[in-house]
Amino acid sequence: MASGIINLPPGFCFSPTDEQLVLNFLYSKDSLPCYSNIIPDLHMSLSDPWELNGKALRSGDEYYFFTKVKENKTTENGYWNEIGVNEPIISATDKKVGIKKYLVFYLGEGPRGTETRWVMQEYHICPYVFKTQSYDLSGSKWVLCKVYERKKFQFQKGANYCYSDEDDSGTELSWQDEVFLSLDDDLEEIKSIP
């Protein structure tokens, strides 16, 4: 165990739902004096995403860690950029308990960096849900981050090129060709809908 990080033994998988991440980990971190310390605290500016192994809780190809809400998201080699996609996290009782924001890692200096396959889901608490508690979460200091590397391009608004690890023919396509092929596949799928 390096620097207090818990590494899961073979066969164990840390696979919580979004609701569990917010209610059982992030809420506990923000409001309880003693909380389960399975997920470590990290300064995002000190590690590029490919350097998270041994620093964050790893489960499969995903890395989990806490960081401060206002943490600097610029590293030595790049920066994390929000892509403008926010999803509400709804509890089993149909209450909004959190928000999940998506960020992508770019190499180089902003705003003209090169997009990578590294994605971060940043979990935030909805403070108004917990206002009946004796803790004030309107000034929540922590976010919980889940980082992973995309294996295949996921077409998103604003994206301008594709990645694919599945084509192992040895032939590389330009990013424009990959976008056109992806759009052709999307159009064929849409046309096939009855």
From TrEMBL:
Transmembrane segments: none annotated. It comes from Lupinus albus (White lupine). PANTHER family: NAC DOMAIN-CONTAINING PROTEIN, NAC TRANSCRIPTION FACTOR 56. The keyword Membrane does not apply. Residues 8-150 form the NAC domain. It holds the Pfam family NAM. Keywords: DNA-binding, Nucleus, Transcription, Transcription regulation. This is Putative transcription factor NAM family. InterPro entries: NAC-dom, NAC_dom_sf. GO terms for biological process: regulation of DNA-templated transcription; system development. GO terms for molecular function: DNA binding. The keyword Nucleus applies.
